[in-house]
Write a structure and sequence with these properties.
The complex is a heterodimer of chains A (171) and B (590). Chain A is mostly helical. In chain A, 55% of the residues lie in helices and 4% in strands. Among the domains of chain A are: 58 residues; 46 residues, no CATH class. A two-stranded antiparallel sheet of chain A has the order 1-2. In chain A, a hairpin with a 4-residue loop joins β1 and β2. Classes of the chains: A mainly alpha (171), B alpha+beta (590). Chain B: It is found in: Membrane.
């Protein structure tokens, strides 16, 4: 290493330009700021993602709760009990309509109240968490709202001719 | 000059030191950043890293209509850390409220359904773990979370739920509390249902807080496949209801009902009473937790006669018009005798008459026309003496001794269902062969196993065995129809509008060296005769006070009628043949 004596002018020439230095510093500051911004955005997104994951878990839990309620309400055990509470009667005789050949198979028979009343549930299900709450009283109150539509239907009831489907006016 | 030299020397020393320092730092930097970089990184990560198992979900079991019979849900163990227990601080509308430990315990007790004192006792002490409640459902878990008590935490785990309870419970089987399959299809098809747990790692800060986005899945989870059954849960439930009532009314040991789709061999219902609720297997007796339909073999009695007449027809040993003399007791030449179930004058019975009156003596006379080896071969082809292709765990093969080991009564008692033991499954598929133009299909309970990505990894192999000719099978079905058309007990199995064929059975049950006083009563049948769709077989074991099969025909009729209605089978449009002689004089008609 060697030390040299220079004049003031020569030293001034060798001194780095202020603008260059300023640009360099500004550049560094800018890069740092961009990096900071990106980091902040990334962190923000990470927390947002974490929040969404939490919400997803919570929603999955809600779905599970509702699914288990639906399972219980839809279980045959619940339906059998509900049918029994409502005094529903099963009609074992089947009557089928063959649309292609305009035929009715089987003879319609009224269900027998005594012999075919829906049996209450006899099959265990310890997973039932919800049961249907309706009973004859709640159903009766629901019928009030549908009575108008029902009376309109009754007025246009079709009487079946044995073995034949009545010709539809729409075809 | 001297000053300059001194300055230069000092500067040189300073520069040298600087170089040495920078070199040392550089070497250190290279060591840290390059040479030992991996080691240090791993060491650093290890100190922050936590590993967590990602639970793979066990697949669903679904019925033929896609209804879920078994699914995996989550349950929660609610725990406390007694060493951290203290007052709970809550902010309501910006106001700080302090909840005492007693009040918090009271809230917990209300949600968990426990006594406050019990909760308080579990919160006492200095341990880091105290379990407050096990296996609580998601509703309770949510309520606990909402309490926001900092010293309460929970463990989530997968739990097997059977939404329809005991519907098909005997077939589904069940799993242990840790998820190990213990019985039934759960165990048999574990490779389909079980998933493969995954693993992830994540990083924690010095404060122990999980660092977001730091998680890395090192082993992805593979959820289990869904098992699709042939069981129709609606029909299954109906059959179980019918059986439960019959078994209870008759004070019987158990009852079983099986519904088979004739053309495919698919089992639509395999109902039993009593049975098991897989949600709570401990509530059932050990002997009720399996499937007797597959696992219990018994001497079937007269339901076997339909198969014996089929052998006679197929081997052309008799026509449907030939008659045999059928007294109520037949003395055999080597000192034994065969007796019918009721006293009567000697009948002249055709094959249809033998079925209609369920005559043991008549069946003997016809059956002995077929040699022993041929009969044994027929019995084997009907599927007796070996397990089926169902491969249900613990399935019984029944008992069918080789014909060359038959002695004395063994030579003929199988013609009316003694000396041979069969499972309800085997008998149902022997009837399936009769209904399917003489071809026995392999039974199936499972339609497919499908992975979460939709790939079918299992579907049953359908095997078929020609047992008897199509002509003999169809004719035999029409002989069996006479049982329902005219039979004293069989008539009760009739379904208005449908042609039904079947056979009653009142089988004695061996006790020690002889037979006991209680019976296994059965009715196995087919409908509609002109185009068979279903085989239904009902057996009620050891009903109290029943000496005939009247009480088995009712359940048969109910279940068959429900199957026909459920699957929209049109009523029969043809009538039974009226030229088949079946009365006690060997003539047609009543």
């Amino acid at each position: 290493m060697k030390l040299m004596m220079l004049s003031a002018n020569e030293a001034k020439k060798l001194r780095p330009g202020l603008l260059t230095g300023l640009l360099l510093v500004m550049g560094i500051i800018l890069v740092q700021l961009v990096q900071l911004g990106l980091n902040m955005a990334l962190t923000q997104d990470a927390y947002y993602l974490s929040k969404l994951s939490g919400e997803k878990r919570q929603l999955a839990t809600e779905v599970q709760i509702i699914q288990e309620q639906v399972d219980s309400l839809a279980s045959p055990q619940n339906l059998a009990d509900a049918a029994n509470r409502l005094g529903m009667v099963a009609n074992p005789s089947s009557v089928l309509i063959d649309i292609v050949n305009d035929k009715i198979y089987g003879v319609p028979r009224p269900a027998q109240a005594q012999s075919s009343a829906a049996s209450a549930n006899l099959v265990a299900n310890s997973a039932m968490v919800s049961v249907s709450e309706f009973n004859p009283a709640t159903v009766a109150s629901a019928q009030v709202e549908t009575s108008v539509a029902e009376s309109a239907l009754n007025g246009s009831q079709v009487t079946l001719v044995a073995g034949q489907i009545p010709a539809s006016p729409t075809r | 000059m001297g000053n300059h030299a001194s300055v230069n020397r000092r500067l040189s020393v300073f520069a040298l030191l600087l170089v040495l320092l920078v070199s040392a730092l550089g070497i250190r930097l290279v060591d840290y950043q390059i040479v030992r970089a991996d080691e240090i990184r791993a060491e650093s990560l290890e100190s922050r890293k936590e590993t967590r198992t990602l639970t793979a979900l066990r697949g669903d079991i679904r019925d033929a209509n896609g209804e879920v019979l078994a699914r995996t849900v989550f349950r929660y163990d609610i725990n406390a850390a007694p060493k951290n227990v203290g007052p709970v601080i809550r902010y309501m509308d910006g106001n700080r409220t302090e909840i005492s430990v007693e009040a918090a315990a009271d809230e917990l007790a209300r949600v968990l359904g426990l006594a406050p004192e019990e909760v308080l006792s579990k919160l006492a002490g200095e341990s880091a773990y105290s379990n407050l409640a096990k296996k609580v459902d998601a509703t309770v878990y949510n309520q606990i979370r909402e309490l926001d008590i900092p010293w309460i935490y929970w463990d989530r785990f997968a739990y097997r739920l059977y939404p329809n309870g005991a519907v098909a419970g005997n077939v589904l089987g069940f799993v242990s509390s840790d998820g190990t399959p213990l019985a039934g299809l759960e165990r048999q098809y574990n490779t389909c249902l079980a998933g493969v747990d995954g693993q992830e790692t994540y990083e924690r800060s010095a404060e122990g807080v999980r660092i977001p986005t730091s998680n890395v899945v090192t082993q992805p989870t593979q959820d289990g496949g869904n098992l699709n059954l042939s069981i129709d849960s609606n029909l299954q439930f109906f059959a179980q209801q019918v059986l439960a009532k019959s078994v209870s009314d008759l004070n019987a040991e158990w009852g079983s009902a099986i519904v088979v789709e004739v053309k495919t061999g698919r089992i639509l219902a395999a109902a039993e009473a009593p049975t098991v609720d897989p949600n709570d297997p401990g509530a059932s007796k050990a002997q009720d937790r399996g499937s007797r339909i597959m696992q219990f073999a018994f001497e079937p009695g007269s339901i076997m006669k339909s198969l014996s007449t089929a052998m006679v027809l197929d081997s052309k040993s008799a026509t449907i018009y030939e008659t045999v003399n059928s007294p109520d007791r037949l003395q055999l030449k080597y000192g034994e005798s065969i007796k019918d179930s009721f006293n009567h004058e000697p009948f002249q019975l055709t094959l249809a008459g033998v079925l209609r009156y369920s005559s043991n003596t008549g069946m003997y006379s016809f059956g002995m026309r077929v040699d022993e080896k041929t009969r044994f071969n027929y019995l084997q082809k009907f599927g007796f003496g070996k397990t089926t292709d169902l491969n249900f765990e613990g399935e019984s093969s029944g008992i069918l001794r080789p014909y060359d080991e038959w002695q004395y009564a063994d030579r003929y008692t199988h013609l009316f269902g003694q000396g041979v033991a069969v499972t309800p499954l085997q008998m149902a598929f022997a009837y399936q062969a009769l209904a399917n133009e003489g071809v026995r299909l392999s039974p199936s309970l499972v339609d497919s196993c499908v992975t979460p990505s939709g790939e079918v990894i299992y579907s049953p192999e359908r095997k078929s065995t020609r047992v008897i000719s199509e002509e003999a099978a169809n004719m035999n079905l029409q002989l069996m129809e006479k049982v329902v058309e005219f039979g004293g007990v069989g008539k009760l199995a009739g379904i208005p509008g449908y042609r039904v064929a079947g056979k009653t059975g009142t089988a004695e049950i061996r006790e020690g060296a002889g037979y006991g006083e209680r019976f296994a009563i059965s009715f196995f049948g087919v409908a509609p005769v002109e185009d068979p769709r279903f085989v239904v077989g009902v057996t009620i074991y050891k009903p109290v006070g029943e000496t005939n099969s009247v009480k088995a025909t009712g359940p048969f009729r109910s279940i068959m009628q429900q199957a026909l209605k459920h699957y929209r089978v049109p009523p029969s449009t043809s009538k039974p043949r009226d030229d088949i002689p079946s009365n006690r004089f060997g003539k047609t008609g009543e």
